Amino acid sequence: MNVGCDNMKALFCYDGPLRKDKDGNYYGIALNNDMFSRYFQIADSITAVISTQNINEEEIANKYSKINLNNFQVISTPKLSSLNGILFNRALVKNVISEEINKSDFLIVRLPSIIGNLSIEIAESLNKPYFVEIVGCPWDAYWNHSYKGKLIALPSYWAMKKSVKNAPYALYVTNQFLQKRYTCKGRTIGCSDVSLRPLNESVLEKRLHKIKNMKNGDPIIIGTTAAVNVKYKGQEYVIKAISKLNKEGYNFNYYLAGGGDKSYLQSLAEKYGVIDKVIFLGTLPHEKVFEYLDEIDIYIQPSKVEGLPRALVEAMSRGCPSLGSLTGGIPELLNKKLIFDKGSVNEIYNLLKMIDKKIMFEEANRSFEKAKEYNKELLEKKRVTFYHEFIKSINNYQTCTEKNDFLKVEGNK
User: Fold this and answer.
1) pTM of the full predicted structure?
2) Domains plus CATH for the chain?
3) 20 to 30 Å CA-CA from 254: which of 85, 123, 369, 412?
4) Each residue's pLDDT tens digit, 364-410
5) Other CB atoms within 10 Å distance of the CB of residue 85
């Protein structure tokens, strides 16, 4: 690290959770080595105040990656993201955060999160520097989650608005959507949390060859990568749409990659007469995801809630012609003609009916080119520049403070 200060200690605040095994090792999915390593560009050590859950060996093998960074520690807190948590755990968590803030030079606050909101309140009261990273929308997440979720959607929305509005520095994972909904008066940047290795042009060539060799009557394979036990991911609308299409003589299969209890979607597929057309692949190891994406013909992201979906960007990086719902950052990625209102079976039906080989050729090229914007090196350079601006502002502030303190002392002599 070379940002003008030695031994900088960062505090990372987020609801999480991280997973913990019986030996005390921590694991995550999006919260992984790559993500936490970014912060070592501006910090010598990182402490994460975050809730944790126990994990078994089967879960580790399926989708979680071990966090094994040096100078990284976890301070586990009780869960706050529930009514009981807020009522009975808030005071304890507040004390933990306050103690850790006093040991740190600055905070990295990931939002939306209740721990994040609380840490900002404390940081401001202690005049401690912080920046926020906005990775999702609590309104969409809670409103589309359940009836109980609807009760806390509005309070969560306003809490997030307040946290982001006065942040001195804010990084958004979208370019437009989250910025419009949660405005910030400070310095801001749009920089996706999704990053890809350099793309190989041979991937696009194979995709175009695949499209060229499609024959009338061959099954058209649609794919979605998302948990199958979360209704707001929207797979049910695709199942209903292909049922209607297949009854009219089309031949659509639907491949679902993702973990969770599949019983609801499975019963729905049976009810709509496409149980043999809906294929549940379960959780795929990351190295197998690209093989699955190369096998499908069209990717669809039918979610009712999203930030900027990694699964969609990865599909586009394989040249997949892609459709998606009008939510979150999805419209920033796709051809506006291939976007449908969330939850609209009829619009999905009409779009799938419209797509032909000519459109697939055009969209394969478009997807591949758009995915290049998520090149890991380009995004990392943009992100690190932003981090260094933040650290420079801390150094300038500290220099001014020290100078003022010196002048006060000299003036009192």
Assistant:
1) 0.84
2) 9-195+376-411 (3.40.50.2000), 201-369 (3.40.50.2000)
3) 369
4) 999 999 999 999 999 999 999 999 999 999 877 555 444 444 334 34
5) 17
